Amino acid sequence: MGKGNKEGTSKQFRWTKPMEHICLEILAEETQKGNKPSNTFKAVSINRVVEAIFEKFQVQCDAKHVENHLRTVKKQWQIICTIRGESGFGWDDNMKMITCDRATYDATVTVHKKYEPFLNKSIDHYDEMALVVGKDMATGSFARTFVDIDLDDDN
């Protein structure tokens, strides 16, 4: 939980699974309402999370804690997208889980320890993460090669 004095000036804030669930649930709703005009949320959205955390857990949470946690979630999402894009990995949409065989798992975890929490385990709040931070990441879907570009002399 939060450390520091009672006025909410804590330097460190510990996110529990239930807190993260509420945070992502609220921010997913806010995204659907259009309160995320670019890649950042409006202050009202962040404040909804702050108020919900305090109301539910009686823990002082500041807007900066929510924003910092969003950076953590973005990093996790980036890892998930990287793994899903690599050869040798499957996806179970029902379980929201990246799948791989034992040999691939062992080889991957040896090289990329940070991949371990996302392999052969259901990813908590996957759908909410996709809404909240999924669109912020570059996917390469608009990337084009010179073959794709029409080189007309009329231009």
UniProtKB/TrEMBL annotation:
Pfam families: Myb_DNA-bind_3. InterPro entries: Myb/SANT-like_dom. Residues 14-104 form the Myb/SANT-like domain. It comes from the Eukaryota. This is Myb/SANT-like domain-containing protein. It comes from Gossypium barbadense (Sea Island cotton).
